[in-house]
Design brief:
Blueprint lengths: L7 E6 L5 H8 L35 E5 L1 E5 L8 E2 L4 E2 L2 E5 L5 H4 L1 H4 L14 E9 L14 H9 L15 E8 L2 E10 L2 H9 L9 E11 L2 E11 L10 H10 L5
Antiparallel strand pairs: 1-7, 2-3, 2-7, 3-6, 4-5, 8-9, 9-10, 10-11
């Protein structure tokens, strides 16, 4: 897998995979989303079908979570054959501590090491994806992206307001990983998350349960830092009058400007 040891996109999340999440990704085509409409799962989409978008840029995504490392190879091109008669694998998952993965495959560990404390000698706290950039056309996709194009795509995201509409993402950062260390390009985080976490995650179906809360977002676009304060209303849309009386009262109380 030498050709996949070059530039890559790294994605870190401080949550570990559940058994359901592992099965969803190893068995491509099954998203880690709830099939039960009555199940109140605020993690919907967290590790679901959206992961398939990774194949726009890579042919062999891999990730570490807890004590597990996994590789996904839909066309069975890169992973070694096993069994008799030998059969190429489309995905593999193993406990990297029990299987002494670092000792057996040091080259595959090298890219991960030193990122968010990952060293393959102990349980990794969180989930770390590695998406090596596709260097030539393949059966999965004809799209080949250079590093500069990837950076341009991420630069286009930095001024967006997705944080206002997400329920579980509390901070997001983009780093350019250099040999001398990570270089922060931009970051967005919610400063008052402890006071609004429950409100953000709650799904409002009953108009009588409408809620208004404040969101204090800090945005770092190196070397500049700016803060934005938003008043968010969820639910009860048909009860909001044209003059936004309740919103204005809340804004005046919290000293927020409303046009």
């Amino acid at each position: 897998m030498k050709e996949l040891q070059g530039p890559a996109i790294w994605i870190y999340n401080d949550a570990e995979f559940s058994e359901k999440d592992f099965q969803a990704l190893i068995n491509l085509g099954i998203g880690g989303k709830s099939r039960d409409e009555n199940e109140n799962d605020t993690r919907i989409g967290k590790f679901g079908l959206g992961f398939n978008c990774a194949f726009h840029i890579t042919d062999l995504p891999s990730f570490v979570s807890g004590e597990t490392i996994a590789f996904i190879d839909p066309h069975a091109k890169f992973l070694p054959a096993t069994g008799y008669p030998p059969k190429k694998l489309k995905g593999i998952r193993m406990n990297f501590i029990e299987k002494e993965f670092k000792k057996r495959f040091p080259d595959q560990c090298y890219p991960y090491e030193a990122i968010e404390g990952c060293d393959f000698t102990k349980k990794f706290k969180g989930t770390l994806f590695r998406l090596p950039l596709r260097t030539k056309r393949s059966k999965i996709s004809s799209q080949v992206l250079e590093i500069n194009e990837i950076l341009r795509l991420f630069y286009n995201v930095e001024s967006n307001k997705e944080m206002l509409f997400l329920r579980n993402i509390e901070s997001c950062s983009l780093y350019d990983m250099k040999e001398q260390g990570p270089n922060l390009i931009w970051q967005a985080k919610i400063n008052n998350i402890d006071s609004c976490r429950n409100s953000r995650q709650k799904v409002i179906d009953n108009v009588d349960d409408a809620q208004i809360y404040q969101l204090d977002i800090e945005i770092i676009q190196c070397p500049q830092k700016v803060s934005e304060i938003w008043a968010i209303c969820t639910g009860g849309h048909n009860k909001i009058k044209s003059e936004f009386k309740e919103l204005k009262e809340f804004s005046q109380k919290e000293r927020i400007k409303v046009n």
